[in-house]
Amino acid sequence: MNKGKTIFSQIMSHIPERDFKTCVDRYKGNYRARNFSCKDQFLVMSYAQLTGRECILCY
Fold it and tell me: Under a CB-based contact definition with an 8 Å cutoff, are residues 48 and 56 in contact?
């Protein structure tokens, strides 16, 4: 049983939350976003990139 953080969680912890939010606010990234925020999109695309996915809809 895993008792610690996942590797993905450890990698994402190195990205400063404040800096990410500053960029999203500066470029109005969440404008008209309803359910899927910029943070969610970033996490999904980062996971896909790190796991070598070519298409996230195919799985």
Answer: yes
Instruction: Burial-class residue 9 by CB neighbours within 10 Å (0-12, 13-18, 19+).
Output: exposed
pTM of structure: 0.82
CA separation for the pair 19, 43 (Å, rounded): 15
Using alpha carbons, select from 51, 25, 58 the residue that is nearest to residue 39.
25
Q: pLDDT per residue over 4-21, tens digit each?
A: 999 999 999 999 999 999
Tell whether the torsion through CA atoms of 10, 12, 15 and 16 is positive or negative: negative
A 10 A CB-CB count for 47 gives 14
